């Protein structure tokens, strides 16, 4: 599970490093997520949005038959939005 963040958005992707394929992904750029976050301030760049993406990527992973992942924070410190995404994914059943 690789995570990337910008000031306005957060992205999460689960990929198979041996095959070089993205298996599951979620981000605040997706139309469904943007619709959910449209009425909130700081739409994609806050902890609430990160938690939503963590939950969404975990649900997609479970549907794809993925239960365990290695967490890659891409050099970002483990706090704030990165921590919120990880905690939400764990609560939704993804094992790190």
Total E-strand runs: 3
Separation of the first and last Cα atoms: 9 Å
Could you say which overall geometry the principal axes of the C-alpha atoms support? globular
Class derived from helix and strand content = alpha+beta
What does the largest sheet look like? 3 strands, antiparallel
Helical proportion, percent range: 25-40%
Mean pLDDT: 93
Cross-sheet strand order for the largest sheet: 1-2-3
| Uncertain stretches of 5 or more adjacent residues | none
Specify Rg, calculated over alpha carbons.
Answer: 12 Å
**Could you tell me the strand content as a percent range?**
15-25%
How do the helices and strands follow one another from N- to C-terminus?
A: EEEHHH
Task: Enumerate how many helices there are, as a single number.
Answer: 3
Task: Tell me what you see in this structure.
This protein is 36% helix and 19% strand. The protein is α+β, with helices and mostly antiparallel strands. It has a three-stranded antiparallel beta sheet. A hairpin with a 4-residue loop joins strand 2 and strand 3. Helix 2 packs parallel to helix 3 (81-91). The longest helix is centred in the middle third of the chain and has 17 residues, at 47-63. The protein is globular, with a radius of gyration of 12 Å. The relative contact order is 0.23. The model has no long low-confidence stretch (mean pLDDT 93).
């Amino acid at each position: 599970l690789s995570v990337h963040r910008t000031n306005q958005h957060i992205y999460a992707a689960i990929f198979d490093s041996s095959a070089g394929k993205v298996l599951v992904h979620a981000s605040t750029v997706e139309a469904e997520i943007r619709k959910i976050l449209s009425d909130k301030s700081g739409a994609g760049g806050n902890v609430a949005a990160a938690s939503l993406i963590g939950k969404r990527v975990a649900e997609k992973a479970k549907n794809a038959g993925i239960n365990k992942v290695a967490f890659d924070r891409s050099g970002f410190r483990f706090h704030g939005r990165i921590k919120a995404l990880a905690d939400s994914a764990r609560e939704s059943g993804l094992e790190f």
